[in-house]
Design brief:
1464 residues; mainly beta; five-stranded antiparallel β-sheet; four-stranded antiparallel β-sheet; 111 strands; globular
Length: 1464
């Protein structure tokens, strides 16, 4: 017993049990190599050691009696590299191979042993025997070929007259010539008898030569080239000839893969590089091929019809590089590329067909043997037998019961998250952009046109009348204001997640809405112009379940979804909390203010009713005594009746249907109002109305003592003009609302997402319909009309009119459906159900036409073929079923009606997610939950292997909905997983693709094709949950999307991007959908991180914007809490000290042009001017402890100055109260400090700005955080973090509006209550200079914003929109990038930049129809490194500043005289 080890030197060492070496076996005598090792494998059999080497040899070692060892090589093969060269002897069972391992080998095919091997100095790529078998020609790399003796492989001749590899060579049948093809695009012909002298050169090929063959008469040569050409040469004339001119020519061999004779070798979707070699057997009329998929295939020869059916054989693990028949046609030899293997296949002639390797096919007795699989007529379709469950079970065997299920996703795991690293999805996600210039956002944009749906589940009292006769309600993340007469909608789009509650101000014009999510905010907004008036945040977590205004409208109360159901009372106008308290430990369902006392309100919920009083800064409550019996019930709604004070009483609706009349915290009486739970109580001037789960509205007298009338909500009471009926009989009712002081009907909301108008006689009219509880996944648009259909988990199929904005019809399906698709003729729609069945419904009647069920798991996708003859059904069982569709009503099926299954597509390893048909209705593309992209052919479902190089040219029917198609790989960002995009759709005629995202409810619009890395796009928010599906209308004028859990159906307008200032965004009937976007429109371009590269593109150095270190910024950004503004880990000035010399001086003028203040290390310098000349110089302020980073002066009396200092860096181990940047506000007259402000723990403040009135002061800290202060009160009002990474400057453009500049964008911040709302400036894509970055910011007295770009241009922004643009003059030329300083005045704008050795100041007029260049001044730069970093404009003076300690330049605008002022 012992151990054996093998070494790199080829020797074997023997060790005993104590691991002492006892013997060494010398290296074995290799038949080919000087050194046999290294040894990769060792085994012991009896007394024999078997060793495997790296060079593909196996040898045995035996111990001899004399103590020595004998070794013998028993197996050898080619070594590292690929094997391409292969030839068979013309008369003997011998084959020759040539490889990249520098060897040429002869193999005995009869005894199955190697015969002779020789080595060559370079890689060998081709071999050929002479007709008499005496010589072997070998093609090498470097343009060499050699002639060897075929017996001993001794070199006879060597020719080296080319540079590239000799890829193929063959002797002529007569043996007189040798033709040698090279990668130089030539075929050289050599005379054998003349010592291989070159006699002919055949040229004209446009790419390298891959194959060549001689004609039988040795007069012609045919070649294949790398660019898929087949050329025929007349050898004697050295000319290319047309095959039609030599019809009687016969070929001695056929090893090429191109030409009409071998068209059948290529399946319909093959890439031109898929087949590497072929060899025709003229005796049996068969041709063998080797391809890139490791398959050896046999075809009939000739095979003229593309896509002929082969027999496939598996053996090689890598691509098969060459194949040849033996001389007796009994065997085929094949060689593998990377597997180095030489296979010998025995050929057994037979008329019987072998089963296909890549699919399960019908028996030949059923399917037929014809190569022609094309279906052209309905008769042929009828001839295809039905694939019943019994037949499928017989064909699939155990696959259906075990194999298929093993491939399914298991349990409730999220599909598509964990995918293979080599999957199609991984490839799409890792795609890179080769042409960055082509990466531009689309020129089209979207805007919300109409939304179908209403949020009914988990909500109450959330639909109300407004003062102007419109109604307001919500669905998803959108507040909707709707005219009940015209159904025209307006939308409030500032929410970021599901809206859960909604209340209307007593004046009837303002709305409060609360949302769910981590940012549990309450918005107060104007229902007329949709402006956000207050953003209340920091009071709740998880969500806001109820809101209500006080009777005087000054207070707003809100309830949270946290564990304690926190109650908060707000001063909503000023945006702060007045008081808060824990509501109750059990669920709280609502609240209601007293109409007579704005300090009193009621909350109610599970087993409790509480009355609260707001006293001082707190809330106190007393619980209503319900008694033992009532205490077990849940209060669901409430209202207030009676008069004021002691006359006031509360009506509380309970889960039992009773109403409690509460007065003075006691239940005065109990009224049995309904038999089911009550959800709504409405008090009007004359009556009280109640509604609940039973579907009845009850009208009561004012004292709640008598029920005057009961109104059932059912189809019987629908108005005659109603287009649709209710989806269920007497649905539960969720909300009631009446317009005060009018005769408007009662607004009723049902739990099935319907809004109704009920008149005094109980007649009903439906104004809003939508899907109920559950999710909505199924969506399709009509192929000819502006209509759409949807299906959802609420068991309904619904029709929608997209022009008239009406629900056109619905049908109850009695089970949940997940997908729907229109037939091309729109005769019917196909539905796929969660129980595995599929059905056809006639359209537009929505009557069931037929159906079938062959699956037990959910159907995820259904698609009709473009010609309407087939229906593909993808399921969670990893299969696609193919059905013939009954369009005449006479199809007979054994397992259903209207559909006859004819095929099953197998091979998916996970559930089917998306399907798309080819335009010819023959090919199907399928995507799976494992990130696979598969192809199948109808009608039987044959699997097709199609590479990307071919698939990208396939013409798919529109819309293309497969998310893994190569033409849409640019929709995938590298951080995404497979479930982040639920659906896509390409437009019918526009070059656009739209995606439905799981990420934040976004709809994204890309250009199409969309190839390469993640592309620039436009994105839109409206859905609150994941967007499940998306479709274009037939004319591309609209897009329809569905939300999952929000159950909404949103219709979007598609428009070309144009911009106009403050233009109404309404679209009249019949108007073209190319309207301009309004100036106040939200940005649809996603925010992008700013990098140092962007600063360089903007002409800014990496230190132009002082921030903590990059790593510090990252950690700082990660530590931000969104509650109550940014909250960061305390930071110091570390990482900034080394850049102190980069601090700016920022000289700034007072309004009278007589005083200049500037930054000078820790003090503020002061200059007195007279006519542009210095009269005195002094220190203006010296209370700062560290370096001053920026400065601002107010424009109103009394004039104030604000300066900011760096954070103080504390000593190690000691505490410091000022470890943050501070702002000092002081009087310039006497330098007295009036206040010190601190926004947060930021280290550097880089910009300050006073509002026009001087009331507010804004700061930009750490290049990303904006703070607003009321400096007179020393109060911090609001703050926000800019989600762009790095901002460079900040200025007020209005009293409550700020403009913040980044190298890529301009952001506008509006102060709303105690919050800042950020929107991105809009710019037409053709307005801004290509590739230019922003680097200068100025604001005129009128509030217009001027931005400088890195090419010296100026862009004017009015409102939120870039409206005008002017380029710099050509003289002097501006070499981008330049850093631009801007100062804007009344009617003029000045820019300053450094060009060569001069500072150029340019003046543009802004009060003309166009921005116009007026004049410029060239000023000699004070020093080589002097660059203007600031420009400040006074009444008649422009002053330019640079770095601290560098001179200023003062320009007198009247005289044009400039003065350089040295720093002091």
């Amino acid at each position: 017993m012992g151990s054996l080890t093998g070494g790199k030197d080829g020797s074997i060492s023997l060790f005993d049990n104590d691991f002492n070496k006892v013997a060494t076996v010398p290296e074995a005598p290799s038949l080919v190599y000087d050194v046999a090792g290294p040894i990769h494998s060792l085994a012991v059999f009896n007394e024999m050691v078997i060793a495997g080497t790296e060079k593909n040899e196996i040898w045995t070692v035996r111990a001899q009696d004399n103590g020595g060892f004998s070794a013998a090589c028993i197996v050898q093969g080619h070594g590292l590299g690929e094997v391409w060269g292969l030839a068979t002897h013309p008369s003997r069972p011998v084959a020759a191979t040539a490889s990249d391992d520098f060897t040429v080998r002869l193999w005995d095919l009869e005894d199955h042993r190697p015969m002779t091997t020789t080595t060559v100095e370079v890689e060998a790529r081709s071999v050929a025997f002479s007709p008499d078998g005496q010589h072997l020609a070998v093609g090498l790399t470097r343009g060499i070929y050699i002639i060897l003796d075929a017996e001993h492989l001794e070199e006879q001749y060597r020719v080296s007259d080319r540079k590239e590899v000799r890829h193929d060579l063959k002797y002529s049948p007569s043996g007189e010539f040798l033709a040698v093809a090279s990668n130089d695009n030539f075929v050289d012909v050599y005379a054998v008898e003349s010592g291989y002298e070159r006699t002919k050169v055949l040229s004209g090929a446009s790419s390298f030569i891959t194959h060549l063959d001689w004609s039988s008469d040795s007069l012609y040569i045919q070649v294949n080239t790398g660019d898929s050409q087949r050329l025929i040469y007349n050898v004697s004339e050295e000319a290319i000839v047309d095959e039609s001119s030599i019809p009687s020519v016969g070929w001695n061999t056929w090893t090429g893969v191109l030409g009409p004779q071998v068209a059948g070798l290529w399946h319909k979707y093959a890439d031109v590089s898929d087949i590497n070699a072929s060899d025709a057997n003229f005796y049996y009329n068969i041709i063998v091929t080797g391809d890139d998929f490791g398959l050896v295939k046999l075809f009939r020869f000739p095979s003229t019809k593309r896509g002929a059916k082969p027999r496939s054989f598996v053996g090689h693990s890598a691509h098969v590089t060459n194949v040849r028949w033996t001389n007796d046609s009994e065997y085929v030899v094949s060689v593998g590329g990377a597997d180095h293997a030489v296979f010998l296949w025995r050929f057994r002639p037979s008329r019987r067909s072998s089963p296909r390797m890549d699919l399960v096919r019908l028996p030949s007795s059923v399917e037929g043997e014809s190569d022609d699989d094309v279906l052209d007529t309905e008769d042929e379709l009828e001839g295809i037998p039905e694939l019943t469950l019994d037949l499928e079970e017989e064909l699939a065997g155990s696959t259906r019961s075990s194999g298929r299920r093993s491939r399914r996703r298991t349990d409730d795991a999220t599909p598509g998250v964990d995918v293979a690293t080599d999957s199609t999805f991984a490839k799409r996600r890792a795609a890179t952009d080769e042409n960055e210039k082509a990466n531009v956002a689309p020129i089209h944009a979207l805007s919300v046109n109409h939304i179908f749906g209403y949020r009914a589940h988990e909500c109450r009292n959330n639909a109300h009348w407004l003062k102007d006769g419109r109604v307001v309600y919500h669905v998803a993340a959108v507040g909707i204001v709707c005219d009940p007469e015209t159904l025209r909608q307006e939308h409030y789009l500032h929410h970021t997640d599901d809206i859960l509650c909604l209340a209307v101000h007593p004046e009837g014009e303002l709305v409060a809405s609360g949302q769910i999510g981590r940012e549990a905010t309450v918005h107060v907004w104007d229902a007329i112009d949709h402006r956000i008036l207050s953003l209340l945040q920091g009071g709740h977590t998880r969500g806001v379940s109820a809101v209500d205004f006080s009777s005087d409208g000054e207070r707003l109360a809100s309830l949270g979804l946290d564990d304690y159901h926190t109650l908060v009372v707000w001063n909503w106008r000023k945006g702060y909390k007045l008081a808060s308290a824990r509501g109750h430990s059990d669920k709280v369902f609502g609240l209601r203010f007293s109409p007579s006392n704005s300090h009193r309100l009621m909350t109610f919920g599970v087993k409790h009713v509480k009355v609260w009083n707001h006293v001082g800064g707190g809330l106190t409550h007393r619980q209503v005594s319900l008694g033992r019996k009532l205490k077990q019930e849940t209060a669901l709604c409430s209202a207030v009746g009676g008069g004021e004070g002691s006359e006031e009483w509360w009506a509380v609706g309970m889960s039992s249907g009773t109403v409690l009349i509460v007065r003075d915290l006691k239940v005065e009486r109990v009224v049995k109002a309904h038999k089911a739970p009550m959800y709504a109580i409405l008090v009007t001037d004359e009556n009280i109305w109640t509604a609940g789960q039973g579907g009845y509205v009850c009208k009561w007298d004012r004292e709640f003592t008598k029920c005057l009338r009961v109104f059932p909500v059912s189809d019987h009471f629908l108005a005659e003009t109603a287009a649709v009926a209710f989806t269920s009989a007497q649905p539960g009712l969720r909300s009631l609302s009446a317009a005060p002081g009018t005769n408007s009907p009662i607004l009723v909301a049902t739990q099935h997402a319907e809004l109704l108008l009920m008149d005094g006689e109980g007649q009903l009219n439906i104004i809003v319909q939508g899907h109920g509880k559950g999710e909505v996944w199924g969506l399709d648009t009509h192929p000819l009309l502006m209509e759409a259909v949807t299906v959802g988990d609420d068991n309904t199929l619904r029709r929608w009119g997209l022009e008239e904005h009406l629900a056109l019809g619905s049908v109850n399906l009695r089970k949940a459906a997940r997908c729907v698709h229109f037939h091309p003729t729109a005769m019917f729609v196909a539905l796929g159900y969660l129980d595995g069945s599929v059905a056809l419904y006639l359209y537009p009647s929505l009557k069931k036409h037929g159906g079938a069920q062959h699956r037990s798991e959910g159907i995820s996708e259904v698609k009709f073929s473009p010609d309407g003859r087939f229906l593909a059904v993808g399921s969670h069982e990893c299969l696609v079923d193919l059905y013939v569709v009954d369009t005449d009503g006479d199809t007979v099926s054994k397992e259903g009606s209207g559909l006859r299954r004819v095929g099953v597509c197998r091979g998916a390893s996970s559930w089917i997610t998306h399907l798309t048909w080819h335009k010819d209705s023959r090919l199907i593309q399928a995507n799976t939950g494992a990130g696979e992209q598969l192809y199948f052919e109808a009608p039987h479902g044959n699997r097709q292997l199609i590479p990307d190089a071919t698939s990208r040219f396939l013409k798919w029917s529109t819309p293309l909905t497969c998310v893994l198609d190569e033409t849409v790989e640019g929709i995938w960002a590298k951080f995404m997983d497979l479930t982040d995009i639920n659906a896509i759709a390409t437009a019918n005629s526009l070059p656009l693709v739209v995606t439905a995202c799981d990420d934040g409810g976004l709809v994204r619009l890309f250009r199409y094709p969309c190839q390469g890395g993640f592309k620039k796009h436009r994105q839109y928010r409206g859905h609150s949950a994941h967007v499940t599906n998306v479709r274009w209308t037939y004319d591309d004028s609209k897009i329809v999307t569905t939300g999952g859990a929000d159950t909404s159906v949103i219709v979007w307008h598609v428009r070309k991007v144009e911009f106009a200032e403050d233009q109404d965004d309404e679209q009249k009937d019949g108007e073209e959908s190319t309207k301009k976007l309004p100036a106040h429109a939200f940005s649809d371009l996603p925010e992008e991180e700013i990098t140092m590269t962007d600063l360089e593109a903007a002409g800014l150095e990496a230190t132009a914007v002082l921030t903590p270190s990059v790593a510090g910024l990252d950690s700082m950004r990660d530590s931000i809490s969104r509650k109550g503004g940014p909250k960061r880990t305390l930071r110091t000035a570390k990482g900034i000290k080394r850049h102190l010399e980069r601090l700016r001086s920022i000289p700034t003028l007072t309004a009278d042009d007589k005083t200049v203040f500037y930054c000078n290390e820790c003090v503020v310098g002061k200059l007195e001017l007279e006519g542009g000349e210095i009269t005195s110089q002094s220190i203006g302020y010296k209370e700062h402890e560290t370096h001053i980073t920026t400065l601002a002066i107010s424009k109103t009396d009394p004039v104030m100055v604000a300066t900011a200092q760096l954070a103080v860096e504390s000593e190690e181990g000691t505490a410091c109260d000022t470890e943050a940047a501070l702002i000092h506000v002081w009087r310039p007259l006497d330098g007295a400090n009036v206040g010190v402000l601190r926004g947060g723990p930021e280290s550097v403040i880089i910009s300050l700005s006073f509002s026009p009135s001087g009331r507010f002061l804004a700061s930009l800290a750490d290049a990303s955080v904006v703070h607003i202060f009321s400096w007179t009160k020393g109060a911090h009002i609001a703050s926000t973090e800019l989600k762009v990474g790095m901002a460079t400057s900040l200025m007020h453009s209005g009293e409550a509006t700020l403009a913040a500049l980044t190298p890529r964008a301009i952001l506008f911040l509006d102060l709303v209550g105690n919050s800042l709302v950020t929107t991105r400036g809009q710019a037409p894509p053709d307005l801004l200079p290509e590739g230019a970055a922003f680097n200068g910011l100025g604001v005129s007295p009128s509030g217009r914003v001027y931005v400088g770009t890195s090419d010296g241009s100026v862009v004017e922004w009015t409102g939120r929109v870039a409206t005008r643009y002017v380029s710099p003059p050509d003289d002097p030329p501006t070499l981008a990038p330049v850093r631009l300083a801007i100062a804007a005045g009344q009617g003029v704008t000045f820019t300053a930049c450094r060009l060569d050795s001069a500072v150029v100041v340019r003046c543009y007029t802004t009060d003309t129809p166009k921005l116009t260049f007026f004049s410029d001044s060239l000023i000699e730069a004070p020093s080589e490194d002097w660059i203007p970093t600031s420009a400040r404009l006074g009444a008649e003076i422009l002053i330019l500043g640079a770095r601290m300690k560098q001179p200023f330049i003062v320009l007198d605008l009247k005289s044009g005289k400039f003065t350089t002022i040295e720093y002091g």
